[in-house]
Amino acid sequence: MKFSFTSFLAGCLLTVLTATASAQQDDLVLGISEGTSGGLDHAQVIVKYQGLADAMSRAAKRKVVVVFAREFAQLEEGMKSGRYDFVMARPSDYPARGIRNYGYQYVASAKPDGQCLIVAPLGSDITTLAQAKGKRWIFPEKISYMSKFCYAEMRDKGIRMEVEKLIYVREQALIAQYIDMKLVDVGGIASYSGIARQLEKNKLQVIHRSVAQPYFPLVANKKVSKPVIAALQKELVGLNDAAGGADVLKSVGIEGFETNSATRLSQLLVWLEK
User: Fold this and answer.
1) Which CATH code, of 1.10.1740.10, 3.40.190.10, 3.30.9.10, 3.40.50.970, is assigned to 26-112+213-272?
2) 91 contacts 145 by C-beta, under 8 angstroms
3) Are the CB atoms for 66 and 53 separated by under 8 Å?
4) Is CATH 3.40.190.10 correct for 116-209?
5) Hey, is 118 helix, strand or coil?
6) Which end of the chain has fewer CB within 10 Å, C or N?
7) Residues of the chain with CATH 3.40.190.10
């Protein structure tokens, strides 16, 4: 009798688990990465992006669930295996690799675009890139996207960073401190960084703005159909005018979405890796 009752419970549990798994398999997975600067845990990321997932669900006519990719390796693996139906990530080189290496499709990018800002102290005699040549430079961590971004921009402007006096720091917040302490003369920061949003507070002035590149792109797995992508694009671009759309954008921390950066995103890695 005991055996039969146990078997009965096991059968019921298996039925429930199977039904749950089946429902989850119908969901679309949105992988989110905020790089190394987000500082949020999984629960906070779900709350932050739930409104966006709901908007995407309406367009796709299937539930979209948020999954936090805390580590870059996890993000890469999720794209390589196709586990993510959608990826929205910064730095932008990861969605770009999703397109180049794993067959993902461009959906949209956040507004405004991203740029490398070359900054100097407020009141500095250095006001142009030409005057910055031969000075003491500071960039974010060497392996970081923004460091590569700034490096590529300087290369295109005729400044060879390999011969400049250049140091790297892990956190962009330290760049302002190094400049303030006069340990360096100029630095490269992301236009969407905390420092860039508080230039006056950090006693900095921008002496050069780089070419603009797609910021925080959203890409879709190759199995997502073109009609669904078109519906998503219409929904995302329309968020500014939709009921509750402004709150969704504010939660994500962007001004809006645009859908005209497919070519630029596909060429981003070529530009970085010249």
Assistant:
1) 3.40.190.10
2) yes
3) yes
4) yes
5) strand
6) N
7) 26-112+213-272, 116-209
Q: Residue 209 is which amino acid?
A: R
Contacts of 216 (CB under 8 A, 6+ apart): 88, 89, 90, 92, 109, 110, 114, 254
Residue 203 · residue 195 · CB < 8 Å:
no
Of the candidates 255, 248, 215, the one whose C-alpha atom is nearest the C-alpha of residue 59 is 248
Token readout for 162 is 């390999």
Q: Which of the residues in the chain have pLDDT under 70? A: 1-24, 36-39
DSSP SS3 for 229: helix
Sign of the alpha-carbon torsion through 26, 235, 217, 227: positive
| pLDDT tens digits, one per residue of 77-103 | 999 999 999 999 999 999 999 999 999
* Residues whose CB falls within 8 Å of the CB of residue 126, separated by 6 or more in sequence, listed in order: 120, 132, 135, 185, 186, 207
Radius of gyration of the chain from its Cα atoms, rounded to whole angstroms: 22
The burial of 81, by beta-carbon neighbours within 10 Å (0-12 exposed, 13-18 middle, 19 or more buried), is given as exposed
